Amino acid sequence: QVQLVESGGGLVQAGGSLRLSCAASGRTFSSYAIGWFRQAPGNEREFVAAISERSYRKYYSDSVKGRFTISRDSLKNTVYLQMNSLKPEDTAVYYCATVAGYRATSDWGQGTQVTVSS
Predict the structure, then answer these.
(1) CA–CA gap between residue 94 and residue 109 (Å, rounded)
(2) Which of 77, 47, 60 is nearest to 69 (CA)?
(3) What are the start-end ranges of the E strands in 26-67?
(4) Alpha-carbon distance 8 to 22, whole Å?
(5) Beta-bridge partner residues of 58
(6) Residues 6 or more apart from 49 whose CB is under 8 A from it?
């Protein structure tokens, strides 16, 4: 099974941008659809975005559509989440996982913290 490690989080002002990375180990990375999820304090983990194995299909939650862009680089075994026009409500720990539809199918990693100040 592929193992995933998130990075790229940080503190940013509202309206700013960040790019998250999800680095995968294992030679079967291109066989998996990958998704991003987030969990804010006191909230359940929620789906953010997903990308199919060969990037043909991309899905976004309504709350990030038009602001976030998911992409993948198979040569680098990495999936990215470009986050623009960030809002304080985007503050959360962000996680990546293999997915089936909108459901995570791999174990959760440590995630990466994103904090958006107003």
Answers:
(1) 10
(2) 60
(3) 34-39, 46-51, 58-60
(4) 9
(5) 51
(6) 35, 36, 58, 59, 60, 61, 64, 68, 70, 81
Residue 96 pLDDT grade (very low, low, confident, very high; cuts 50, 70, 90) = very high
pLDDT digits (tens, 9 = 90+) for 29-41: 889 999 999 999 9
Q: Alpha carbon of 19 to those of 31, 68, 76: distances in Å? A: 23, 9, 15
Residue keyed to tokens 């107003």: 118
DSSP-based helix, strand, coil % in the chain, nearest 5: 5, 50, 45
Tokens of 1: 């099974």
Copy the structure tokens of residue 80. 């990215």
Phi, psi of 88 (to 5 degrees): -55, -30
Tens-digit pLDDT profile for residues 33-72? 999 999 999 999 999 999 999 999 999 999 999 999 999 9
Q: What is the DSSP letter of 106?
A: S
End-to-end Cα separation, the chain, in angstroms = 40
